[in-house]
Fold this protein.
Amino acid sequence: MSEPRPAVDASAPIGVFDSGVGGLTVLKALQARMPAERFVYLGDTARLPYGTKSARTVQRYAVQAAGQLVTRGVKALVVACNTASAVALVALREAYQPLPVFGVVDPGAAAAGRVSRSGRIGVLATESTVRGGAYQHAILNLRRNARVFARACPMLVTLAEDGWIDGDVPERIVSSYLGAFLHGGESIDTLLLGCTHFPILRDVLARVAGAGVTLVDSAETTAQHVATAIERTAGAALEPHAARLLLATDDRHRFARVGRYFLGEALAAEDIELIDL
Amino acid sequence: MSEPRPAVDASAPIGVFDSGVGGLTVLKALQARMPAERFVYLGDTARLPYGTKSARTVQRYAVQAAGQLVTRGVKALVVACNTASAVALVALREAYQPLPVFGVVDPGAAAAGRVSRSGRIGVLATESTVRGGAYQHAILNLRRNARVFARACPMLVTLAEDGWIDGDVPERIVSSYLGAFLHGGESIDTLLLGCTHFPILRDVLARVAGAGVTLVDSAETTAQHVATAIERTAGAALEPHAARLLLATDDRHRFARVGRYFLGEALAAEDIELIDL
């Protein structure tokens, strides 16, 4: 027996949630695909990172943060944080049903499973995403004979946050993380970027992985999935800056300074509203 | 006019507080200097790191976390977190007076000011410690003609947390951070490790800095300062393991796994009590 769904206000904004600024890569992809939609983005910067915390804590934080977006009348929720997508999606769906809740894990896993020829797929993610096994399970559900190699890459998060994306140090760190995946005929042919921070490092990741490896970015595949699934707002394309509201739980200055790398646009502290959770 | 101080129970434990496991380097130094004392250590692992957060947020977290130790009847509080020492010491002293509250910044700064011959002192710390200028001010207060060069080193925190302390990658990252400090006759002669994570990387820091640079570790200098200042408990030396209680706000397994590097002793998840703040 299903409850009657409340009438959806198509002009309501879509909520996008992340532990910090990394999810701005997802927001950027969503805005590119759905230019007539409005968005409210919340970065829980006071409590980031989620990637080193326990599942129980991440669930609690995610439900609390999403509540803030629900209060603001969003018509759908996109969990742009890989860690929260991996461990808190069920809790979020239960807490806010019948609100449609989308994560980044399933779209990313589906895309990786689809593009891989050999079925040998590498996944780079945070410590808790890897430990929870969400990407491994999602890929194997779709493609039973795949071989999935997952690796926690905490240094890539710090490099991306720091904007340290060129030169010798990022290259050596990436080589060290990818080394075990890249052995001649046994090499992976697909590399899934299972953390919203990693697209920032796409150039160095592609160079080290080599031409034989396809990079799959869960930001792009998630935007595609969300755009297909939810009711589209009719109307003219909006100016991206005007069509989004940015919320953070701490330090608007840092959010603006680091966030501009992820959003690929200029950002000022005044563009961000500080909230308490 | 000073209020009468309540009688201090000399056998009460000393509280030690940090955002995570890094402060275990301070606990270790305290236990070595004060073997008859008991300690309660609290790592606020659910909300780490503090080093990228605003002063206001760090103050709020620190006062809340310290309250937990005060409830457990500590006779003094050691703030083993550089970031909280730099921005929250006044708030903590106000909140819990007349409890003696010790930070790591002043002892570290005093030691660096004392050992430097040239007065050219490098400080490696977190983003918010550097931005707040606490070490710079503390050193210049003590030694007016010193020249202090401070650098935020987020990658060193991640390296230490990850136990990645040997080899080419840590060496290159340290070289990149120290490069600007080490120019021939203009080089620093003293390097202050202004984050409790950094003593873990002491070997590579010393190697890159070279023989002409003295490393000052605020864990050791703080332990010395605390031992001099507070009433010592008479009695026989206690077995370190039995003389301390370890509390964490998240993930006992990670605390044990990462914490053992900092404490320099075996640790199991069962040694840590999980609390909510």
